[in-house]
Design goal:
The protein has a 5-stranded antiparallel sheet with strand order 1-2-3-6-7. A two-stranded antiparallel sheet has the order 4-5. With 172 residues, it is an alpha+beta fold. The structure holds ligand K1U and zinc ion (ZN).
Amino acid sequence: MTIKKILTEPNKILRQISKDVLSVGNEERKLMDDMLQTMYNANGIGLAAIQVGVPKRIIVMDISKDRNSPMYFVNPLIKNKDIKMSTYEEGCLSVPDQFAEIDRPSFCEVEYLNYNGEKKLLKAEGLLATCIQHEMDHLEGILFIDYLSKLKKNRALEKVKKIQKKNNEESK
Ligand code: K1U
Ligand code: ZN
């Protein structure tokens, strides 16, 4: 398995709309394996394929404490969502070290294909619902900072650029 580079803001690739997967084969399963390793390595709870530069509608997640309950979503579709909203402090591996409270529907039902290409339905609430909606936004080129005011979004982006500059200087 390969640990891939996670793209960070600002990067136009992150703003692409990802394409449907026509069938779940070995290439997609290898991508899901690599994405999962990449996510675990970065201490994340979710990752969309576009974050490693692949514009396919594929997501991996693991919200368990012991990090041994991976979930794989191919071509996920929201079938139903609550009008009731929940607030969660979100982060994103593509917007390093920035966190903000974001409101999202507190419950959703998602239809998707699993690792073996079988059709499944997931009823999600709590962190699971928040995470799957955050990851599905990535498939549309949307980042959680897009929900913030212009001022807060620009502040977050400036901080990310500063961190990146510092990291680049340290690695020289
Ligand atoms: O980059 C990503 O899409 C992954 C992201 C997923 C996510 C976290 C929190 C709320 C919604 C979606 C992360 O894993 S950020 C990593 C992180 O620091 C974190 C981990 C667990 C809970 C909160 C943040
Ligand atoms: Zn994210």
